[in-house]
Specification:
- This protein is of the alpha+beta class and 166 residues long.
- 56% of the residues lie in helices and 17% in strands.
- The chain has one domain: Muramoyl-pentapeptide Carboxypeptidase, domain 2.
- The protein is globular, with a radius of gyration of 16 Å.
- It starts with 5 loop residues before the first helix and ends with a strand.
Length: 166
């Protein structure tokens, strides 16, 4: 089945967690070399900016390829991304109506992986921050607030989506 994330996933037969592990195998040696050459602070800032730009451009381009309102674009991406990433997280829906979607992720295998590597900041850049880039496709019709993540050591990730009135 073809989805809006096919170009991002490259091979839909590989789970998002395995894809992330492959990315980490490449990024960690690059990050280590940059840290050795430039220092941790400067290297991390360069990598952070590069990954943030990549994610924003990626999800922006995916959104541009979907017909409909910004909220519909967000819903399409969110649905497919949720199916793909949902295999690696456990969550509880607290509220779901026309005004909001509130959920808490209570287990995240991505966080477990990056925390075991000692690189939760890299995991946050690759995985957690993408949620905000997907919400940005909603162009203000969808907003996301998240006060905490498992990746950063909290017991849960708090997703609080708000939807503008139609």
């Amino acid at each position: 089945m073809t989805t809006v994330l096919d170009d991002y996933l490259v091979d839909s037969g590989i789970s998002l967690l395995d894809k992330t592990r492959i990315q980490a195998q490449v990024l960690l040696p690059v990050l280590a070399a940059l840290r050795a050459e430039l220092g941790k602070e400067k290297a991390d800032a360069i990598v952070k900016q590069a990954l943030r730009d990549w994610s924003k451009n990626l999800f922006g381009a995916i959104g541009d390829g979907i017909d409909g309102s910004p909220r519909r674009k967000w819903a399409t991406i969110q649905s497919v991304f949720g199916e793909v990433s949902g295999k690696e997280v456990e969550f509880e829906i607290l509220r779901q109506d026309k005004e909001a979607l509130n959920l808490d992720v209570t287990r995240c295998r991505f966080a477990e992986f990056f925390r075991a590597l000692g690189e939760p900041d890299l995991g946050a850049l690759l995985i957690c921050e993408a949620d905000f880039d997907i919400a940005a496709v909603g162009e203000g019709e969808v907003t996301l607030e998240r006060d905490q993540t498992i990746m950063k050591g909290a017991p849960s990730c708090t997703f609080r989506y708000k939807f503008a009135p139609r």
